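Figure 2 data, in text form.
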Amino acid sequence: MPNSALILVYGSDLRLMETRRWVLEKADFEVLTALNFTDVCQILSAENVDLFILCHTLSAKDRDTVLSFAHSARPEMKVLVMDGITSGFRAGINGTVLSAFANPRFLISTVRKMTGPKGSLPTNLNLPRGVITDTATQTS
């Protein structure tokens, strides 16, 4: 996928990260995941990451630590922070905060806006039964 944006997703819930990875890969993004700070450091040092997504499963301390490192290591890199609550958290000059409960299309739309025209918005994600498709309802 030479024209796709490279995204790094970091969080502490493997199942949730893999779900986000799947959704973003369906939209033609290249996605890497990390479950620990050491992996984040190695990936950011070795890869030209276009967007860094922090999952809401990280503690505030872990989130702040990794954001500080990311801003120091790659100040131009965009950051998307998935937030589980409305905390007033600010992601910084290159960052955006998005509800962790946003539906997959809104996540893809936000990522596309942040990375430019590198990703395509699929018309059908073929979501499995039971996956939340909007903030108010669930498929059955």
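Caption note: The chain has four helices and five strands.
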